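Q: what sequence does this backbone want?
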């Protein structure tokens, strides 16, 4: 979310107002409430993002039956840790139900498979990554690990936006995301590493300083891929923003596109590389 060369560089103050409201609420839910509170927040946020994805992907062929199947499977996927459900079972069941539903409601054989793929893509793209946030929260000290993930992801996005807005001159991948610049990416990387080191010192001592630096780099790269992936979807479907629910940020999918790639990266790092007990 950076400004391309030649454009007037000015900040959208609505982003600051939105952040001022959301950040304290998200912090309280992650740290001070039960794991189920975070799960319900992710289901609410993810449901909006998934509906946006289906709306721009299906467009005029939006089918309420397939959307309903996708939404139910998505919710079960996010809450699977609490419900003792395994990911393969959920995905297999979701694919089968979606394919059967599409065979009855699709307007043609070609659309039958295309609509099935779109519905399943939404579950894989939005549901599975958000489920890893829930899995992170269930680990020992999971409330602060989840907070670390949120802080570093937010820092990377924020650094990229403001550095790119002020000093961005060299486009990164203009064919996919014209506003993203190399300077913005570097600004996001530096702020993400700084935030990770501060978080390590403040509330996640179970991660070493080298873990913090490495995670700052990994989450910045993952978040960048997530941002570019969503930009590619929007470019292919011909839309500018996934929605307008968040002032200054666009749609909910625009807001969590980085998290959808940083969350699984972070979870699998701490669960398997650092050896914390996974909850899959």
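A:
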């Amino acid at each position: 979310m950076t400004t391309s060369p030649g454009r007037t560089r000015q900040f959208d103050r609505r982003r600051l107002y939105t952040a001022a409201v959301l950040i304290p609420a998200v912090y309280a839910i992650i740290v001070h409430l039960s794991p189920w509170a975070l799960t319900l927040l992710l289901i609410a946020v993810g449901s909006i993002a998934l509906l946006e994805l289906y709306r721009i992907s299906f467009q005029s062929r939006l089918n309420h039956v397939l959307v309903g199947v996708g939404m139910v499977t998505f919710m079960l996927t996010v809450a699977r840790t609490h419900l003792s459900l395994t990911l393969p079972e959920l995905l297999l069941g979701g694919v089968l139900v979606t394919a059967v539903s599409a065979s009855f409601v699709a307007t043609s054989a070609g659309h039958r498979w295309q609509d099935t793929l779109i519905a399943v893509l939404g579950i894989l793209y939005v549901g599975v990554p958000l489920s890893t946030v829930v899995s992170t929260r269930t680990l020992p000290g999971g409330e602060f690990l989840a907070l670390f993930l949120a802080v570093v992801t937010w820092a990377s996005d924020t650094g990229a936006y403001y550095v790119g807005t002020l000093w961005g001159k060299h486009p990164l991948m203009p064919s996919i995301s014209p506003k993203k610049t190399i300077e913005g990416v570097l600004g996001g990387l530096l702020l993400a590493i700084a935030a990770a080191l501060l978080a390590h010192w403040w509330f996640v001592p179970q991660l070493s300083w080298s873990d913090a630096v490495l995670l700052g780099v990994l989450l910045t790269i993952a978040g960048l891929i997530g941002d570019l992936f969503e930009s590619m979807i929007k470019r292919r479907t011909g839309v500018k923003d996934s929605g307008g629910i968040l002032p200054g940020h666009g749609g909910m999918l625009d807001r969590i596109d980085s998290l959808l790639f940083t969350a699984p990266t972070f979870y699998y790092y701490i669960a398997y590389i650092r050896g914390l007990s996974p909850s899959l």
